[in-house]
Each structure stands twice: as structure tokens, then as C-alpha cells.
Amino acid sequence: MRRSEPAIAPQMQVTAGTLPQAPEIAPAPPRWSQLRQILRQPKGMIGLALVLFYAVIALFAPWIATHDPYAQSFIATLQPPSSTHWFGTDELGRDVFSRIVTGARTSLGIGIGGVLVAFVIGVPLGVLSAWRGGKIDFLTMRAVDVMLSFPDIVFALAVVAVLGASTQNVIFAVGLVSVPVFARTARAVTLSTLAEPYIEGSVSLGCSPTRVVLRHVLPNIAGILLTLSSLLFASTLLTASGLGFLGLGTQPPNPEWGTMLGESRSYIRTHPHLATFAGLFLAVSALAFNLLGEALRSVYDPSAPKVQKRGAGAWMNGARGIAQRLSDADAAASAAPVETRNLHVAYLTEDGPLEVVRGVSLRIEAGRTLAIVGESGSGKSTLLRAIATLLPQGRAAISGGSVTVGGQQVERLNTRQIRELRRQKIGVVFQDAASALNPVLTIGDQIGEALRTGSSLSPDEIRSRSIALLEDVNISDPEKRLAMYPHQFSGGMKQRIIIAMALAQDPQVLLADEPTSALDVTIQQQILALLRDMQRKRGMAILLVTHDLGLVARYADDVGVMYAGRIVEAGEVAEVFRAPRHPYTLSLRDSAPSVAAARGLRSLPAIPGEPPNIGKLPDGCAFRPRCGRCDGRSLCAEAVPELRPVGAQTTACHFAEETGA
Ligand SMILES: Nc1ncnc2c1ncn2[C@@H]1O[C@H](COP(=O)(O)OP(=O)(O)OP(=O)(O)O)[C@@H](O)[C@H]1O
């Protein structure tokens, strides 16, 4: 049976065939722009120049040194600076300049080694702590607090005292001292990155936790960790020199700035040049890395046609209607991409579980679009997330009923099976395309990841499929676009890319939560026309959560109206909008600008009263306090109205028959 034309005329008609091509945008390589940002700051320029200066000294020390740094001369001890010995000689007659230049390798090597040790231990600890949360997070952070309670040098001294004085042990000790700072920072930036929608998108694609961390978390926190490394390099260098000064660092005769300072102690009054040059090199190197770290901080710190099959339509039922419908449903259960039965979802709040989805039964067949509409807070997104298997872990749970996707009941699946289900059967498109894409990865990388997850495609196949996907979503010049970054695309194009990623694994169901609300009206129509076009080609079921009844009228087959966690009216869009039987649907329809305009209404009547507080619903019908039809009737206060067939749709109102068709 053909779906009848929607009663509400759409404001704008855009068909998939007339989609305008996306505009050309010149790519800009972001890595160079970061370098430019660093060099634009005086501290960045000076810091980088000094760091390069030290790197050159350390690398080319054997060629820069004017004398053998180990050669002793007892006839030339403690000589002041001269043209032969630029920085003078030490107590054994060795050339100080050559020893400082040679010592640059050891000193900087200890700094680099120490930061590496801290990075390799601290970053995984911090990321793990943020990712796993709970006890692991608690124990790790308490251990870090204990380590932080000791002054750096005391902690390093204790480690070297236990392990013995040697360059390797100094590296380990100074590295260990910096582990808490890395762990804390990595944890904090990982937590904020994990809250980004593109992480959720990745999880919805079925990516494993390791992959999410490696592909999305680490690249995003890399900038901040690089800044931290530079800043910590300076303090590591100073701690290592402190150990050297105390005789616990690099052992003689090897030159190292801290050790040299320690050796010069006895001559500080008589031959100050010994301490001056070593101290100067040490201080300036710490300053250089600090300046560079500050410049890096200012760059990276965030604060700086539808398949027409009747009988295959969506349906929803309350307790009474459900029995008959379920018998039909059972026959076709394996074919339905999405089905929920008496689904309840609760958030775990401080005051106990708060049920925000309260007994929703729905079914979406292949090739059909079911739109869920309702005021803010009615539970639409929570319902979608429950179907997407993306309820926030530990904070929300299915508290009753069931969700079946592609014939698999999700509550019975283990973690690996859920990941497979997400990858193979579910595509998700969220509202904010801008934040649903990882800003530090190219579009090619991100589409490639969606294709690669759980498959064994070769790089060439991934590339050709990525190009085909971009063509599918009407993005021109796809080969060039693959190398571009999200910021080089407009909002509408980003949303097309998100759709391409969601479709990468040819899902049976596409779940779209306000996919166009961040876009302007023309683009909204284009995106929904695109989704409809994709649906025609692939026969997917679509669940669309939206506030926009005009879009529902134009692009959905069926609609479910949600109020306070329940479906209060459902049926084919044309029927429900032509003759709403529930007073809430009636108010919702008449208060929608596009719908009201199409119906010739001049003013927009607001829905009376306040949206319900889902934790304190009245007895009986939840809509009762706002309902004009109720008018104090006792039945409305006594019994929760069940969803039952009234006319062409199902309605949860005791007095639904009072509205004529
Ligand atoms: N993490 C949470 N903890 C507790 N309650 C929550 C949480 N997230 C949402 N809720 C509550 O659950 C109810 C349903 O929220 P949901 O986001 O599903 O509604 P919605 O209809 O999608 O709203 P919107 O259209 O504004 O997105 C609301 O009352 C909301 O306050």
C-alpha cells in the first residue's frame, strides 16, 4: 500500500537528484600553521632557537670540542679563560669548554630519557585511569597523590640511593619523579576528549577501546603532552643536575653539567669560572625548554522513495493492543531491523533510578522511517541511545523490556558481540557534525577507520570505497577531499561525511538524533533528502529523532509522539498529522511553525503548562495537568491511559474518540 501524501505541505522541496555540489575549499596544511604560531611568539622563537642550538652542540660535540675532554694536564690546572682554553681548565687541567660541550650529550640525554620514562609510564596510566574509571581510577590517583607529596629531589634521591649511582639510574629516577604529572594531565585531557561526540561515534562504529584510544584519544592529547614534555624537560634536567651535584649522578670522569657543578664547589671562591659556565649552560637550557613549552602551551591549550510495504510499517502499542500486534510481529521478527518491547530505561541518579523511558514498544521495518517527536526531556534521545547500545555506561541502563536489532536481543549480548552489532548493523548520526569528527585526523583517515573496523580490506580497497562513499553522499572531488581535515568543510558537508561513515558498513538501521538541527533550513532539507535517497538504495530502517514536525511530515513514514517517557500516539505520519487523536499531539502539531503555516493558522498556540518533571509525574495520565480535554474528569487521574487503536492510529487517551477525523 502506498503511503498517502503528507497532509502538511513541506516548506521547501529538494530532491536527492538536485542536490547542489559541495563548494570547493582550498586545503591548508595545519602542521605548518602550528609551527608558524610558535614562531610568531618571541618566547617561541627564542625557545626554539635555543633548543636547536643545544641540539646542534649535543649532536656535533666531538667536532665542536677544541680539546680531548678527558685529557688531563697537571701543568695547566685551574687556568682562567684564555684563547687556548675558552672557558679555562679544571682542577685536573681538562679543557672546560670541551667538557661542557661533551657534557651536553649526557645532560640533555638524561633530560630526554627522564621525560621518556615519565611519558611511557605516566600517559598509559592516566589514559587507563580515565577510560576505566571506578576503582582503577581511584587507586591510580591515590598512588599519584602519594608520589606528589614528596619533593622531586628527595624522591629522586631515594630512588638512586636504592638503585645505585649511575647515569641509567638517574634517568629512571628523574623519570619516575615526573610520572604523577604526566598521569594526572593525561587523565584530565583524556576525560575531556572522551566526552567528545566523535568518540561516541567511533564506539558506535564498533571500534575496540584500544583502537579508540590509539586513533582518537592519543592524537588529541598529543599537543598538550608535547607541551608538558617540554616544560618537564627543564625540571628533569635540573633534578638530574641536582643528583649530579650531590655526587649521585653521572660518575667521573664523564662530563655532565650537574656533576661538573658539584666538582667546582671547592673552587667557587678562587676559580668561579668553573661553576659559571656549567651553571650558565644548565640554566639557559632549562630556560630554553621552558620558553618553548610556554609557546606550545599557547598553541595547544584549549583555554588559550521509500520502500512502500504496508504491514511493514512501524507500530507501537500499549499493553492492550500489544498482544495482537506481537503475534504479527513474531512472524516477521527476524526481518525487523529494530524492535523494542515494553522498553524501560532508567538513569542512575543520587536519588535512585529515574525511569525516563517507560514502556515503549515499537518496530521499524526495512526501508521505513519512524520519527520520534516530543518536547525536550520526553525521552527521545534516551530511547535512541538504548537502541544504539550507547547508553552511558554506569549511568543509565535498560530497566525492563527488550531491544532487538537485526534479530539480536541486545541485553543478551556480551561486550564483543555488542561491538560487532554496532559495526555490522547500526549506523548512528548525531546532531553536531562539527564535534562528531576528530579534528586532528583527515576525512580519509576517519572514513577509512569506519570501513576498516572489523574488516580485512586492503589499503587500496579502503581508499576506493571511501571515494565511493563520498560520491554517494554527493561530495564532489572525493579524492582530494580525503586528505582534508574537518575544519576545511562546511557544516552540511561535515554532516554528509558523518552519514558516509555511518553507512560505511552497510547497516540495517540508521539512528539519527536531530541530524539537521545545527544546520540551516536549505541544508536540512538536503541532508534529509540524502538520507531518504540512501534509504531507497540500501533498504535501511531509519529512526529519526527530531523536534521539527515539518521535516517529519516530509521525510518520515511513521511517527511516534513521546510524552514523559511514553509513546502517547503513533501511526502513519499523514494520518497522525491530519487527525491527531491525542490532545498533546494536537497541541504539538498546531504549535509547530511549519505545520501551522501549512494549515493556514495565523498565530501559534503554545502548549499550555510546563513540560512534566519526569521524577514527579501525576497519577493517571501524565498529560492531565496540561490537558484541555481532561477538564477534571476522574478517569484521567485514576488510570494511566493505554495505547490503543483509534481510527488509523494508536492513541493513549481515555477520550481519544472525542476528536473527530
Ligand atoms: N545523565 C542523566 N542523568 C539523569 N537524568 C538524565 C540524564 N540525561 C537525561 N536525563 C533526563 O532524562 C529525560 C529524558 O532526556 P532525553 O535527553 O532522552 O530527552 P529528549 O526528549 O531527547 O530531550 P531533547 O529533545 O532536549 O534532547 C530528561 O528528563 C532528562 O533530564
Number of strands: 13
Number of domains: 2
CATH topology of the largest domain: Rossmann fold
Q: What would CATH call the class of the largest domain?
A: Alpha Beta
CATH H-tier superfamily of the largest domain: P-loop containing nucleotide triphosphate hydrolases
Largest sheet: 8 strands, mixed
CATH architecture level-2 label of the largest domain: 3-Layer(aba) Sandwich
The helix content, as a percent range, equals: 40-55%
Which strand order spans the largest sheet, edge to edge or round the barrel?
Answer: 7-8-9-4-10-11-13-12
The end-to-end distance, rounded to whole angstroms, is 21 Å
Written description of the protein model:
The protein is an alpha/beta fold. 50% of the residues lie in helices and 12% in strands. An 8-stranded mixed sheet has the order 7-8-9-4-10-11-13-12, with helices on both faces. The site of adenosine-5'-triphosphate has 14 residues, from strand 2, strand 3 and helix 13.
